[in-house]
Amino acid sequence: MSVAPVPTVTLDDRFARELGELAVAWQAASVPDPKLLVLNEPLATELGLAPDWLRSPEGARFLVGNLVPGGATPVAQAYSGHQFGGFVPRLGDGRALLLGEVVTADGRRLDLHLKGSGRTPFARGGDGLAAVGPMLREYVISEAMHALGIPTTRSLAVVATGRGVRRETVLPGAVLARVASSHLRVGSFQYAAATGDTGLLRRLADHAITRHHPGAADAPHRYLALFEAVIAAQSSLVARWMLAGFVHGVMNTDNMTISGETIDYGPCAFLDAFDPATVFSSIDAGGRYAYSNQPLAAEWNLARLAETLLPLFAEDEEQSIALAMEALGRFRERYAAAWSAGMRAKLGLPDDVDDAEATSLVEELLALLQANHVDYTSFFRGLGSAARGDAEAVRGLVLDLAAVDGWLRRWRAFAPDGRAMDRVNPVYIPRNHLVEEALSAAVGGDLGPLGRLVDAVTAPFDERPGLERYAAPAPEDFGGYVTFCGT
User: Which tens digit of pLDDT belongs to each residue from 75-116?
Assistant: First the structure.
């Protein structure tokens, strides 16, 4: 690593200064000849980073952590986590580094973070590296999520290292540079609580309030207000996942942010045919994080967060537990409200349709989609045309024509707004067969398919000529899709 003036960025080390017990100063592994594969130029500009400079050899070294701005202190962050229900007290950034925090022109503080930058003291036997395919997957899907309006970490760049990474075979290595409003997780609080240091826990909570939920600072019970704010953020986030047909795949507590942003795109994917039991992760044999289980998993994780905060809620433990249970009890109500509002928007229902009628309409539709193995995204997008009188696109997706025609008649009686529906039902998502096609080509040196896919999914609501294959459901022979975490 070299320390040198970087002309377009200053990185603050506030996290390391305020929460040194949760940070280990560390350096990225040396990359002799980094090659930029993909750069998110709009995000770079937003961060105050000159895209032309990032494309230079010095910029590539910066993006893999080998050229560090003066005054920056890269750190590996410490956190714990429940992984598939089992508690691991010391996880941390085994292959990642927080380079520092960028303060944007409009005053936002954002983490600049590396993934695949080499072993750290938290590596636990791992090699600390990442392969090109999984890093490009995170780039594509996180940017698609951002374009869909779903809170998420962002991808700034993927840089090839020229180093082989041994998995089942030797794969080309890469580093992902990503951006987040922070990397504070439920697991961060679990780690602080496990130390038994209430002062550290309080400082972490105050840091989270300042950075993410400043409204809690003036509340009568600021730490309870922090917990309630995280509940609100996560209930909204998971509802948006469900509405978009997104399956995270690994909802461990170390993968749930305090900010309410989606983080860690490993074995994730979007639904093809609608099935609530869908699991894409190769390691989720029991379906713990299946599509339909995501709200329950989020609630369970929030309960684990509540356990860490009990010493801050009240001096009396019973009172703390009562306050935590009362707050957590509102998660389902908040989630249901967000889901219901989102589904009403997807169906274009006017405000005067009562909740019971809307719920019945949604339940009947989802049962119809499941029974007929209907592509989730295509059907909802097609409903916009159906609202304008042309239902052939959606009818062509369903085998049981009598059932879908009956549902369409009932739905059309409410005069749905097709144009409003087109604004919330995407044409283009990172369809699994297209993602695999693009990644396979990229690993082989052809970035063209990846670029075309990114172009489609980062303007997901605007139907464009020439992009028909990006809107089409998966081929019939594309089944049993499985994704892997990449470590």
Answer: 999 999 999 999 999 999 999 999 999 999 999 999 999 999
- The closest of 386, 390, 340, 387 to 366, measured between CA atoms, is 340
Place of tokens 């990006």: 470
Long-range contacts, stretch 398-405, CB < 8 angstroms, 24+ apart: 398/368, 398/372, 398/374, 399/372, 400/368, 400/371, 400/372, 403/368, 403/372, 404/368, 404/372
**Calpha distance 395→330 (Å, rounded):** 39
CA-wise closest residue to 319 among 221, 189, 231:
221
Residue 157: which of 96, 209, 211, 115 has the closest Cα? 115
Last residue of a domain, one of 163, 180, 197: 180
Residues belonging to the active site = 254
Distance, CA of 44 to CA of 62 (rounded, Å): 13
Number of compact structural domains in the chain: 2
**2-4 vs 67-69, strand pairing mode:** parallel
Q: How far is CA 13 from the centre of its chain?
A: 24
Token digits for 332? 């389902």
CA geometry: angle 81, 85, 86, nearest 5 deg = 65
Asked whether residue 127 is assigned to any structural domain, the reply reads yes
Which string of DSSP letters, residue by residue, matches 416-484? Answer: --HHHHHTTS-S----HHHHHHHHHHHHTT--HHHHHHHHHHTSTTS--TT-HHHHSPPPTT--S--B-
Rounded-to-integer distance, Cα 47 and Cα 50, Å: 9
**Over the stretch 296-333, which tens digit does the pLDDT of each residue have?**
999 999 999 999 999 999 999 999 999 999 999 999 99
Which strand ranges, in their side-by-side order, compose the sheet holding 23-25? Answer: 23-25, 75-77, 96-103, 109-115, 170-180, 154-166, 35-39
Please, is 354 exposed, middle or buried when counting C-beta atoms within 10 Å of its C-beta (0-12, 13-18, 19+)?
exposed
Segments forming the whole domain that contains residue 384: 349-416
* Structural domain includes residue 285: no
369 in a domain, yes or no? Answer: yes
